[in-house]
Amino acid sequence: MLMRQERIALILLVAVAGIVLSAHAILTFAGKEPFARPFTDSASDGELVLIEGNVDRAILIENGGHLSLQVHNVTVFVPASASGSLVVHRNDTIRAYGIVQTYRGKKEIVISSPEDIRITTLP
């Protein structure tokens, strides 16, 4: 049998766990969109950003199977783990969420999962 203080502690523990699980479910359902801001040159490393536009150049990197896309003169790096079976062509329209990183002195956007990039192929 639990003492009064132990019952209160157990109830509080269950309540906190319920709140954390509810918050997790809400944030998972909301996705990244509410937390991302449009990419600008002033975006800092580690910031979640959104980029939309036409693909100017799409390169499949031979060693590793990564994709490198140019959109509005910004590199969008899609690692093999996030590219899956993506097929991207020049002039396709993309909407992508990613983290800003500086690579060789230039800002780029790194995609972390396949759900973070949407492609609209023109006929």
Read across the widest sheet, the strand sequence of neighbours is 2-3-4-6-5
Question: Which structural class is indicated by helix and strand composition?
Answer: alpha+beta
CATH superfamily of the largest domain: Nucleic acid-binding proteins
**Radius of gyration, taken over Cα atoms and rounded to an integer in Å:** 21 Å
Give the count of helical stretches: 2
E-strand count: 7
Summed up, the domain count is 2
CATH architecture of the largest domain: Beta Barrel
CATH topology type of the largest domain? OB fold (Dihydrolipoamide Acetyltransferase, E2P)
Topology as a string of helices (H) and strands (E): HEEEEHEEE
Uncertain residue segments: none
Residues in helix, %:
25-40%
**Main sheet makeup:** 5 strands, mixed, barrel
| Mean pLDDT over the full residue set | 90
Give a topology summary.
Layout: H1 4-30, E1 37-38, E2 48-61, E3 66-71, E4 74-78, H2 80-83, E5 93-103, E6 106-110, E7 117-120
Parallel strand pairs: 1-2, 4-6
Antiparallel strand pairs: 2-3, 2-5, 3-4, 5-6, 5-7
